[in-house]
Fold this sequence. Notes:
Layout: H1 3-16, E1 28-32, E2 35-36, E3 47-53, E4 63-68, E5 72-77, E6 82-86, E7 91-97, E8 104-111, E9 116-123, E10 129-136, E11 144-150, E12 153-159, E13 164-172, E14 177-186, E15 191-197, E16 202-207, E17 211-216, E18 225-229, E19 240-247, E20 253-259, E21 264-269, E22 276-283, E23 299-302, E24 313-320, E25 324-334, H2 335-341
Amino acid sequence: MRSHTVLASISALLVSACASAPPVLADQRLIPAAMETDPAGARGDAADDPALWLHPDDASKSLILGTNKREGLVVYNLNGKEVQRLPIGLINNVDLRQSADRPYDVAVASNDQVHAISIFLIDRATGEVSHRGDIPTNRTEPYGICSAREGNHDYAGVTYKDGTVEIWAVSASPLEFAGQLVKTMKLGTQIEGCVFDETQGLLFVGEENRGLWKFAYHDEAPAAVLIDEIGSATGLVADVEGVTLWRGKEGKGWLVASAQSANRFIVYDRQAPHAHRGSFSIVANPELGIDEVTHTDGLDIFSGALPGWPRGIVIVQDDGNPQSGVDQNFKVASWAEIEAALNLPQYEAE
């Protein structure tokens, strides 16, 4: 990390601070943005949630899938330039899993317009993204979504504003697609962000105005276990929006949640008891002409090496570019810089 960049970012943050600005915690580190995408392309609250797709042969050709919840799915290259747009409806969240045993990868998205799980196929040779179809959830407004792959089976976790969490078995190929509801859990109030940890058999979920939870989703009747609560000493505040993982081998790594109203991200051990490791914010990078990140909704971490980012990246939605609700886009920060700033052990990526 270049110290003069960080100092410039800190100075900019302090100059712009006002009485209503969220406080910077003692263990909160300020990480400069390393890249940003083109705007999602709609006025107002548009961008929401990203997911990274790794090109199997050339990491420089990897892609960022981002939702424009007023229009559909937007695809960016690693320089942040838009390369594809799929205006299929009101897509809120997106997630994907990759598998070398087939010539395509599967992404799932929550589609508020048709109350369905939207299925996308990503050609592993070309990177082209195609909309395969929609699986009705038979419930109003699927909100958040996350994906899992175990063996040869794909799953989608779907969350709702009434606190319901569903797990769906999903089957998708160029010839067919289908979905079956296999399990339902319940929290008390509105939830959105979720992430599967297949290695540990856990589903992490953010209840926006309560805290961070986990379910052992293979259990017949998974019980909700509270990991952290809003207002605790960790700095977790409402809304608890995006939830993601840095995945190390043998279940090691980090669980990260977006504390939206404080412009910060809380880091925990991936493994129980999920000890708090600190927090970070993504601040402006004046050298690259990138503004700070505020009021993040969705986020995604890629744990492998990418060109210029040997320890991976975190991709986050930015509410304002630079003003709130204007030209919303996605920002990228280096995981190596976060790792160093929080003094995290360097695990081998999963």
